[in-house]
Specification:
Blueprint lengths: L1 H80 L1 H28 L4 H29 L8 E3 L2 H17 L2 E7 L6 E3 L1 H18 L9 E10 L3 E8 L6 H4 L19 H11 L3 E7 L3 E9 L5 H4 L1
Parallel strand pairs: 2-4
Antiparallel strand pairs: 1-3, 4-5, 5-7, 6-7
Helix pairs in contact: 1-5, 1-7, 2-3, 2-4, 4-5, 5-7
Amino acid sequence: MLRNQTYLHNLKDLAYEPGEAKLQESSHENDLIFEKTSDNHIEQLIQQNHCLQQALEEADDKLKETQAQLAQAGKLATLGTLGAEVAHELNNPLTVVSAEADEIIEALGNGNFDKEFAAISAKNIKKYAERMRVIIDHIGRYSRDDKNSAWERVNINRPINDSLILLKSQLADSGISIELTLNENLPAMWGHTNKLESIFQNLLTNAADAFGCIKDGRTKKLLISSSLENTNRILVKIKDNAGGMSKEIKSNIFESFFTTKAAGKGTGLGLAIVQNLVKEHRGIIHVDSQEGRGTEFTLNFPLERRITHIEK
């Protein structure tokens, strides 16, 4: 009886062995299918990620190109608004040159030509001709597309002073006094001269516009300073004592197309461009303003800032 039970038990084991083999084989095939499916899925994810990364890079390039075009348009718009000032700045030296030349011609015609007098007139003509050359060269350099300009070591005082070449007369004519406190011993920072000048042009133009609504007879002042912070950062402050801004306006000033000026008087791009250009220099811009008392912009730039794709 025990022998028969053992025999039946062995038959039972034999009966189940093929099924188990099939189950094991099926499980192995399923594992292979799963691995293959997983591999395909991972490959698809990698491909999708690559396409997404490529799309993001293209979008980033387009954004940078748009920002560059806006900055260029902003510079040309600034020159457009300064058209009368440019004419004024050129007309003054032209008047002197013309007057000196007339005196020389008149002296030659009367036979009263005096070498010493002619030498003085010639020096005046050269002096004012040089003034016109500086203005024209500055306009040409400033309006040039930034893509054709290089990043370099820049003393921050240079673009500050350059921004005043055309604005100084406009500010003076508006009764605005300028107080410059520039540290002459600042180390050069890594920057883009034209872009830095665009920053200061926009901020100074905004300050001049802010005085337009001041009718209380206050002395109009514009304070500009440069200094060194912690041996490795440059600080530039531009402060006016105009009307200031409300908290609501202050919170929106860096938004594109936001403006408080009348229709046709502003594009609303000036401060948005300023913020982008400051960021390109790895800098920080901060604004402090109080209604009725004025506004101060503080710009903080690192001395070192190099990016390969911008240098090319």
